[in-house]
Amino acid sequence: MPDTRLSLALNLGGIALFVASLIALLVLHAATHGGETDFELTGGDLILAGILTVALVVASMGIHEWIHGLAIRRAGGTPTYGARLVGNVMPVLYCTADGHLFTRTQFIGIALAPLVVISIVSTVLIAFVPYGGWLVLPAALHTGGCIGDLAMAWKVLRAEPGTLVEDRIAGLRLHLPA
Q1: For a 10 Å CB count at each end of the chain, is N or C smaller?
Q2: What are phi and psi of 173, to 5 degrees?
Q3: What DSSP line would sit under 114-135, residue for residue?
Q4: DSSP 8-state assignment for residue 160
Q5: How would residue 6 be classed by pLDDT, with cut points 50, 70 and 90?
Q6: Is 86 helix (H, G, I), strand (E, B) or coil?
Q7: Average pLDDT score over residue span 157-166
Q8: Mean pLDDT, the chain, whole residue set
Q9: Mean pLDDT calculated for residue range 88-100
Q10: Which residues on neighbouring strands pair with residue 145, listed in sequence order?
Q11: Whole-angstrom distance, CA of residue 48 vs CA of residue 50
């Protein structure tokens, strides 16, 4: 279970991942839209843009957890959803299958599924849809927010073969082979 120190480290890692993703997606958008990335928002348009961005970020959070749920079902678990604070610092939504044991491969697939699916869909839309640029900031924020999933997948990947993973609301429990 992450403590306050690990939560702060994850937040810093998430910020770095967000910045890297933002730069990559801006470059992609510029490259696929003839370098046309300049636009000006003022007054009501600026407020509307802020509302749209927040709505896209909130939608991506719900879709992210729904994709975890689909992956959990595919691996034979029953997903449950909720919200909490990690390490008393980082607010997160979650999808878990408390009590269900997954193989390492199943759990890594569950943990990374939203990052992979949302990144692919966002990248295609940003590159090929005329107003795909609206997705750059929400997609980069989503990628940065996946830092916890990446950290859990890394932890499980480093566990010895045969380890079973219990994804609990408050963290992971690794069941090492006998």
Answers
A1: C
A2: -120, 120
A3: HHHHHHHHHHHHHHHSTTGGGG
A4: P
A5: confident
A6: strand
A7: 95
A8: 89
A9: 83
A10: none
A11: 5
